[in-house]
Amino acid sequence: MKSAALLLFATPEDAEAAFYDAVARGDLEALMAIWSEDEDVICTHPTGQQLVGLSSIRESWRQIFASTRLQINANRIAQWQGMLLSVHHVVEGLQVGDESTGPLQATHVYTRGAHGWRLVCRHCSANAEPAGHGSEHRVLH
């Protein structure tokens, strides 16, 4: 297994692109390399299941990848970035096998440390707004 320290994500956008690439390929090791090694990382799936810690997040994604192929098309709606923290809000179109579902809303929180930007929180839920609402890209400062 590759250590997360071996990969350097220079920007939170690099980490986010790597996240979606790993999901599309069903690559659990690449996906886990994006997460911070902090014990309090959190992942909330659209089902509402909240996972805390790398081992529970790893097992959840292992089960997802073992049962289906996912393709996520993400459109970033808003982004806030400081020196050490970046928050991205995206709307996701989800393809599960041959079936399209969604849209979903996801929030990703990244922190910058000695090994670049890492994901510390992903929260994803069903989109309550009609598609296209707020579809313009915004960067919040």
Structure description:
A 7-stranded mixed sheet has the order 2-1-6-5-4-3-7, with helices on one face. A hairpin with a 2-residue loop joins strand 4 and strand 5. The chain has helices spanning 12-25, 28-32, 54-67; strands spanning 42-44, 50-52, 70-81, 85-96, 99-113, 116-126, 138-140. Residues 1-5, 131-135 and 137-141 have low confidence and may be disordered. Helix content is 23%, strand content 42%. The protein is an alpha/beta fold. It has a single domain (4-127), classed as Nuclear Transport Factor 2, Chain: A (Roll), CATH 3.10.450.50.
Largest sheet: 7 strands, mixed
Number of domains: 1
Strand order of the largest sheet: 2-1-6-5-4-3-7
Give the strand tally.
Answer: 7
In terms of DSSP E residues, the strand content is: 35-45%
**Low-pLDDT runs:** 1-5, 131-135, 137-141
- In angstroms, what separates the terminal alpha carbons? 37 Å
In CATH, the architecture is: Roll
Class of secondary structure makeup: alpha/beta
Count of DSSP-assigned helices: 3
Q: Give the quaternary arrangement of the chains.
A: single chain
- How much helix, percentage-wise, in residues? 10-25%
- CATH secondary-structure class: Alpha Beta
User: SSE string, helix = H, strand = E?
Assistant: HHEEHEEEEE
Keywords:
single chain; 141 residues; alpha/beta; Nuclear Transport Factor 2, Chain: A; disordered N terminus
Concise summary:
The chain has 141 residues and is α/β, with parallel strands linked by helices. It has helices at 12-25, 28-32, 54-67; strands at 42-44, 50-52, 70-81, 85-96, 99-113, 116-126, 138-140.
